[in-house]
């Protein structure tokens, strides 16, 4: 048990926060299990209602800070795939959603577009320092003239 006053307060606050977080996680879990029960029953309208409820509860958990947004996205994706599998529709694989796994043709065009700009990009770096040196030289001469007077 902490002795310092601020540590005692933090311990009390963490207990309250833990209780609140567990309630939110329990609500998410119950909605997800209700969705799985609806999938097992096979009622299409009930599945859609339970899916919307589960999405809403997951989003609420993210808003409250209980779940990370990426965790929520992953859980929603898993639920969507389960519903698609139950309804008989093919779930779209993750590789078709992103440009990384779009196929060999897409990667071939990417490499071709990457190589073309690399050949045309050539900058003359030697001219810039020379221009700066020339600009500084007249300033020094003006300073020398002032000292001669």
How would you describe what is shown here?
The protein has 149 residues and is an all-alpha fold. The protein has a domain at 5-91: Up-down Bundle (Methane Monooxygenase Hydroxylase, Chain G, domain 1), CATH 1.20.58. The chain is 81% helix and 0% strand. The protein contains 6 helices and no strands. α1 (5-41) runs antiparallel to α2 (44-64), α1 (5-41) packs parallel to α3 and α2 packs antiparallel against α3. The longest helix has 37 residues, at 5-41. The N and C termini lie far apart (82 Å). Residues 94-99 have low confidence and may be disordered.
Task: Throw out a few tags for this protein.
Methane Monooxygenase Hydroxylase, Chain G, domain 1; 0% strand; mainly alpha; 6 helices; 149 residues
| CATH topological fold name of the domain at 5-91 | Methane Monooxygenase Hydroxylase, Chain G, domain 1
CATH top level label of the domain at 5-91 = Mainly Alpha
Output mean pLDDT. Answer: 79
Q: Approximately how much helix is present in the residues?
A: over 70%
CATH architecture of the domain at 5-91: Up-down Bundle
Q: Characterize the biggest β-sheet.
A: none
Give the terminus-to-terminus CA distance.
Answer: 82 Å
Uncertain stretches of 5 or more adjacent residues: 94-99
Number of strands: 0
**Structural class by secondary-structure content:** mainly alpha
Sum up the overall morphology in one term: flat
């Amino acid at each position: 048990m902490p002795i310092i006053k601020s540590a005692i307060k933090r311990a009390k606050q963490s207990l309250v926060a833990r209780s609140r977080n567990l309630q939110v996680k329990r609500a998410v879990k119950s909605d997800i299990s209700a969705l799985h029960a609806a999938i097992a029953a096979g009622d299409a309208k009930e599945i859609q209602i339970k899916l919307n409820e589960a999405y809403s509860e997951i989003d609420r958990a993210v808003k409250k800070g209980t779940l990370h947004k990426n965790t929520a996205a992953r859980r929603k994706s898993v639920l969507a795939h389960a519903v698609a599998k139950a309804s008989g529709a093919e779930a779209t694989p993750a590789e078709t959603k992103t440009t990384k796994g779009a196929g060999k043709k897409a990667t071939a065009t990417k490499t071709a577009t990457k190589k073309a700009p690399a050949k045309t990009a050539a900058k003359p770096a030697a001219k810039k320092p020379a221009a700066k040196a020339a600009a500084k030289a007249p300033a020094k001469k003006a300073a020398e003239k002032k000292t001669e007077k």
